[in-house]
Write a structure and sequence with these properties.
alpha+beta; 9 helices
Length: about 200
Amino acid sequence: MSLVLDPAAQDLLFREARTANTFSDEPVTEEQVQAIYDLVKYGPTAFNQSPLRITLVRSPEARERLVQHMAEGNQPKTAAAPLVAILSADNEFHEELPALFPHFPQAKDVFFSERPAREGAAALNAALQAAYFIIGVRAAGLAAGPMTGLDFEGVRKEFLDDDHTPLMVVNIGKPGENAWFPRSPRLAYEDVVTTV
């Protein structure tokens, strides 16, 4: 059976998409980021908890502060990308649950009254949303460069607070010259899928 999604869209989102390592100087607008969010906000999370938070790093001063927390190999591309997003998990997401999960508003207290339960749920579901965000960046015709090579605690202290856990930093923009490394291999279907 073939996929319903147009093959060109499949290529844009998956087959031809890569992690960009260089970017052009074409800016990424607020309207583009809004359009990305307005698409990916529909991706599912448990209890519709939606714990992902996005910090856009636009000013030169903030960029300089962020670059010093990136691993050495990630510093030049983070310094040069048109836009950088810090993706984090909001460990106090449960405060929004009465509005986001209105048919069972008690979920806030029944399942998420304890901080460790919230942290585990926020980490998993914000990671799902981070993946949706990367796909959304691609759907906007932009390249994403997600990175976890960074000082997480340094980024948290510099840009977030104790209620937010950084997950990754994503460089965003139009790909620049020599943006792509060669495609790495992928596992075969039979190496991944087990039927029981």
